[in-house]
Specification:
Elements: E1 3-13, E2 19-29, E3 33-37, H1 44-52, E4 62-67, E5 70-71, H2 77-82, E6 85-88, H3 100-107, H4 116-122, H5 127-130, H6 141-155, E7 159-163, H7 174-186, E8 190-195, H8 198-201, E9 206-211, E10 214-219, H9 221-238, H10 240-246
Parallel strand pairs: 3-8, 3-9, 6-7, 7-8
Antiparallel strand pairs: 1-2, 1-4, 4-5, 9-10
Helix pairs in contact: 3-6, 4-6
The protein binds adenosine-5'-diphosphate and magnesium ion (MG).
Length: 248
Amino acid sequence: MGALLEVKNLKYSTPEGKEILKGVNLDVKEGEIHVILGPNGAGKSTLANLIAGAGGYENPTEGEIIFNGKPLNGKPLYERARLGLTIAFQEPARFEGITVEEYLKLSARNNPSADIEACLKKVGLNPKDYLQRFLDESLSGGERKRIELASIMCMKPKLAVLDEIDSGIDFVSIDEIGNLFKTMRDEGTTLLVITHRENIANIADRASLMCDGTIVETGNPKKVIKKFEKECLVCELQSPKLVEGLNR
Ligand code: ADP
Ligand code: MG
């Protein structure tokens, strides 16, 4: 199958001139779970934001992103969403005053076949207990992330970028999250899963290793994990970037 997403020689520097992405090349094939693995500070979130046009990252300094044959540079988040590209963040947003049901209905507005209760069940939440809950701090971080995944299931985008949705949560065994990702894939959503946990890469169809602003390898997940263990973890221990990354 062809590439759904192509990232070509993508560079990004902050307005202050700090070079964060140094020429990223990546292709994500339609129908795959593609994991990007890399240490803290490698530039993973910056890449995710540039792909989704999130957080003001609409234009790279150089290079381009092509989604489903269309160039994305300069397009705002909502336009990319309309094309079928969505992102879930490390810290899901809270929407005070909105119930889970209202939120999932909003997510499903372009997907008439969505079954909101079924989406909740698939992420392990009982609709009876959750539909009328509010999306505020009364929900735990893990519950918020599950709801975020349910929202993506209701939306059924062509491509979902998941930025460290696996980290810092109170639930999710690797098996559980792996099965969830596979369900999403089998229902027609291509997944770009960003993580710094090597065991998440195990569930990928393909994986890429990101290091210091570039993708250094793409291919078989086991091979990529090996390289990560051999090169990145060692490098990370000696790198001031780790400390910087952890403080963010
Ligand atoms: P990752 O998600 O892989 O941990 P990030 O993309 O968040 O990495 O960050 C990559 C590097 O760029 C880090 O060293 C981070 O501190 C730095 N960085 C990210 N955003 C900014 C910014 N707006 N200004 C300055 N430095 C930034
Ligand atoms: Mg990050």
